[in-house]
Structures
1.
Amino acid sequence: MTTSALTEDRASPHLFGLAARRPRLAGVGHRVALQLGADHLVVRIGFILLGLTAGAGLVVYLVLWIVLPRATPDPTDRAPALRNDLGVIAITAAIMAAVTNLGVGEQLPATLLWAVGLVSFGLVLSSPGAEFDLARSRGGALVRIVAGGGFVVGGLAALLASTQTVSQLAYSALAALVLIGGLALVFGPWLTRALAMAERERAERIRAEERTDLAAHLHDSVLQTLNLIQNRANEPHVTAVLARQQERELRRWLQGHNGVVDDEADTSLRPALERVAAEVEEQYLSVVECIVVGDCELTPSVQALVAATREALINAGKFAETQLVSLYAEVEGEAVSAFIRDRGQGFDPAAVPPDRQGIRTSIHGRLERVGGSADIRSRPGEGTEVRIEVAR
Amino acid sequence: MSGEPVSSGPGTLRVVVVDDHSLFRRGVIEAIGGSVDVVAEADDVASGIAAVRLHQPDVALIDVQLPSGSGAEIIETLMAEGIDPERTRFLGLSVSEEPADVLRLVRSGARGYVTKRIDSADLVATIEEVAAGNAIFSPRLAGVVLNELSGQTSTNGSVDDRDTQRRTTNSEQSVGDHDMSMLQRLSPREREVMQHLARGYTYKEIGVELHISARTVESHTGAVLRKLQLSNRHALTHWAVRNNVV
């Protein structure tokens, strides 16, 4: 009852307002009152009247004790657990006495009666109440389980003992079953509760760890970049590139590629090209739109293609004087091709002075060694496209 | 341009903007408001559907990621309701260029998508293209299409079994779990057009390169868009019924 604290503290002008609005015995009356919205005193009188009628009130009390949801413990109440137990013991004893005295016992074997009494008492004693903090009082819990379990098993044994007609073999099998059943009854609730608690704790720990990870990551990446962007706010081109790099990195992280990607060895064409594109972006503050169709292993010839592609991207970054470079690569059958295109100022390939070795050695030479080819198409004012092809 | 609105000025396109970020929405409306007539805005799936249904704009700009679901749901719902696809065209607006997001949007019936990095002039130009019935292929979308529809080989040299039409595309890129039919496979010409788009060529440049008219390039991209949308179950059923396959 989450509202119990409120209900208890509110002064009531009611006739029976003098009745204490806090648990007295095992708290059943209190809970019934809260549940029904009735006055505590009325409920208590009701129980007493019922109790006078052949002890029915006591049985009802005990049943309700088990069935009703537990009230939120009152922090000012000092010994709820102890009072609870005493209440249960007293009531069980009262029921047993009532039943025996009223002569019901003459129709039922006394052993059966005692057995049922013992079992129910054991169950009540060992059941994990909500007011009981498992984590804080392990010792108390153990005592309750052992004592309750003892009562349950003892009661069941007594029950068995009263049924003598069964054959010896069935008897021992039954005994084993009863023992197991009794133990399950006692430990089941505790076990499920402990498991649920452990699960909750684990979930909370994982959440906390995730939050820490997230905070650390954001601090190292996004916040740093935002600082950089603030420092260079008057250079829109630079801020755009920074934002783009951060975006790519964050996206990668969100997709679950944790850790620093650069540390991993590239396993195939696609990641290798993506990495090269990112490097050039970073170094030359240009935007490389990298699109790869298909994928394949990094054989020596494919590695040469990647290296030549990098060179072509760098050339575009250095000389094209444009922000956007398109990189498209595809694996088709045995052929791998890459196209590096910019819409920058272009140049006349025939007019490149012979001492400029960039294109000749880094692109053509590299590819010829692995049996590939490169074709550079460019005209001043119309951008440049480098086409590279190798057999993988 | 079909479906000329009567209420607004002649030649002005009627546009609905659906995006959950009010600031971004404001920015878009400010950027395109001078050139087109923004008749309504919405910020989630339900209000988006309602706004497009009510206003029947020439172009609906739909954000891919909405808080209550995907922008594709808006298009899927309206398409299922039987909105006239010749009257209202959809253009996706996306932060993400993840193949899965892009594909779903286009498959639901969008004529293409633009990223939120696009500048005002380009956005207006793209809206006009879409209103004219053209497909909008970014290099990225062309790449996704090539990965999805080319039915070609991929990882580690495993050869595609063309007879059973099974594909082994890269796991990151392969999004649909459908079997691709022969109907959807790109023709050699369409493939060439897609490759050039992925390389950063404009329609016009592709025309020059392949010695065909820009019109023809557009008809190829339109055909590719239809093939892509055929993998949408609805569209496939429609197509099958229309062509007496079932």
2.
Amino acid sequence: MVDRVPFKEGIFSADAGNGILLGNKCASCGRIYFPPTDFCLDCFGKAMEEAVLSRCGKLYSYTRCHMPAGRFQPPFFVGLVDMPEGVRVFAPLKTVAGRPFQIGMDMEVKIAELWRENDKQVIGYVFKPVK
Amino acid sequence: MFLNPLNNEEGRILMREVAVIGVGQSVFGKFPGRSAASLGGEAVAAALKDCGMHPKDIQVAYAARAYDANCTAQAVLKEVGITALEMVNVENACAGGATAFREVWKEIACGRYDTGIAIGVESMTTSPIAGKLIPPEKDDLDGYLGMTMPAMFGMVARRQMEEHGATAEDFAMVSVKNHQHGCLNPQAQYRKEFTVEEILNSRLISDPITLLMCCPNTDGAAAAILCSMDVARKYTARPVKVIASTLLTGDYKYLQKDICASPVGVKVAQMAYEMAGCEPKDIDLVEMHDAFANEEILRYEDLALCAPGAGLQLLRSGATKIGGRIPVNPSGGLLSLGHPLSASGVRTVCEVVLHLRGQAGARQTPNARVGLAQMLGGLVTGLEHGVTASIHILAR
């Protein structure tokens, strides 16, 4: 079994039954943030509660990248997904046969391998079209 | 040499009028064998020669550089015999050069110094990002996930197509226009015309953005010499005045509902028009950040060169070509000149100065009286993209 390590700690859950993207919410004004913030950037409230984002959102925009970026080798897709909580998330996109990307389509968050590093599987969140 | 700021009775600083009297640019291109100091020195020497100022008469210097920066102003200025004065180095992504220019303007406007030089320099071919796409800052969350400048503008382009009815041909038209302009500029990196088809058929970088819709990575430098009006009159009978200088950082990304809009770009333009006491219709030419062809269309609206939502119409009308109602990027823009990041914000001001003096050769805007230089840049997770914006308006 290959070791799985998150690309970043504390912002997503690899084996959550309830959700994957771990945001937080201002207890005073209710604004939701992803990634989580230390305090409310809007009202400066200090009390923040956990807020797990929905699994599905709508594709706001996308692009197919044809040059390497970070650890990604082309071609690969990235996009912005609008979540029902009012948060826009940037993430790699995975293709589904017969479901070409279209602005406004329903997308679902998944955990996937982003790249390999020293025999470890580096995992993170990606979105793919809802079947 | 150091002067105390001029105060009014309430203790507020009185701002003096400031002129730009010398402008200079190095060659732009790929020069891995040349240092930033050598490129910067070339630009500074050209600016000194342009106004006939002795190197020892410069009183303060600001230099901008984004990559591998370490005492850039000092290294550049020692090449031309300028030492032993206040020198400051700044970084502000693509707006770095504009920031250096504004800092020198402030120093002179508030009366601390009478003369100063702003330098922007970048050696992209020897930088850590040589041959790569420009990523956000190291350890930036979105950067880990594949975010780059072209990816961002690819996503913006998709929204322009979805919401505004833009086509890939429109984006290509911006590049056609700016490359036509660049053919008239002896200092452009690429003096070559391209057809819409050639641009659309060039290699895809970030769908629908193709290679020829992206500015090239470039080495180069630009410099501008500023001074008080009293000093300016000793050098020239026709000084170009800085009538507005604005710089602003954008807000959190969650406040930017539409990625095609640039709230900071709109605000910094409103501030500039107010400061200059003029309206968009008074502007005779614009030099702006066209790092990606589709971006120029959006910036027309930020600068209020047309009604909101009418950017595409303005492009298609031909009004932003040389000879049109409001030429945009008559220099050839970043698309044909190339984009040494920190140099571009000084270079755009230099171009406006040449037009206001009537010295822009074949690309001259006829009878130009007022010109605007805009810069926008920076990609930080959580903040609106193009996070720093600056505008200078100059007039003769």
3.
Amino acid sequence: MDITSAQYTESEGINSGIKLVSNGKTYYVPLDENNSHYQAIQEWVAEGNTIQEAD
Amino acid sequence: MALTLHGTVSDNTVALDRKTATPLIINGDMSISQRGTSTSGITNGNYRTLDRFYTNNGNIGSVTNSQSTDVPTGQGFATSFKIAVDTSDTPTGTEWMQCQYRTEAQDLKPLKFNTSSAEGFTISFWVKSAKTGTYTLAILNDNASRSISQTYTINSANTWEKKVLSFAGDTAGAIPNDTSIGLILYWVLASGGDRTSGTFQTSWDTYVTADFISSSQVNLADSTSNDWYITGVQLEVGTFDANSIPPFQFEDRATSLNRCNRYFYKSVSNAPYSVLANGFESSSTTFLGRMDFPTEMRALPTMSSGGSFQVIDGSSRSVSAVAFDGNSRSFNGARVDVTITGGTTGKGAMLRASNDTDAYLEADAEL
């Protein structure tokens, strides 16, 4: 998938998910290795991209 | 009552039609299309329109995916999956265009791969294209990185043809008993040289990129007049030919939709003010709600939303943002975090569409 941006979301002080923007749409991705969007983000990171810290 | 046997009869063993109670391919009749019925301008890979069928045109021009009512006559199908070329192109290098079906690994136990009892299997489908010639159906065991491929021929342009392709079982290459990808079926529509330059691999072996696709593979993308349709996809355990393949196993809509919901669920308002989640206002600016899924999903899903919403707590509260908390999600439901104005802490409320029949919350646990 084409990833525009990825940013951690925080819940109770810890990273709980990733807010992903792709093709103009926002997705809330769980930190789950079985989730295909999470897998795509890991490939994106391996290409040298960075997940932004949570606000 | 007449009894028709399909398969083989040898010694005292009668092999009846099937070794699985339900079709291994979900939505093989292309009846479920939760994401919509048509998407144009596609240049990359994703699930679009038809449930369970993934497409990737790998930057080879652009295509439109749609659910079509063009079907083979007299077979009982009402819909097919259509890929139409919008912008023509010639693939080079690693570029390739394909339609995929990704099976869930644990569903393939009847194949008994990685044992001496590994079963052969057969893939059957109806296909139609404006572009005649040789096409590749390639299969990858994703976990074991092993593959096998075959070609099929579209003999007549713009004519529905039934294809039946049998594959050997793999005595090596285990398929795990888990929720990961099992076999990926690739209906190849175009390919650059990187996947066609080797020796076409028609028996199970370690995946080699150059051996995956036939060098005779046509380029569907060479004209904007080209299109490709498919329906009636079935995967049968056992070796069958055009005469012995069991009939397509139709499922009622509720069953098929429920099976698709394990991988993708879209809750659509349908009416202008439908309720999509129940919950409470945790502060004057936040509503927390619960969205239930109709069946257990394959994995923790990705959540998203679209359309116009409002929160109703006796009065209507305007909504400026809809988000989903990562720590509060399960295989069965998700928490919806909504930014509102004018809420009352602790007050029960509902998230509903705001005069929008297409507002939605969706959960995606696709392979």
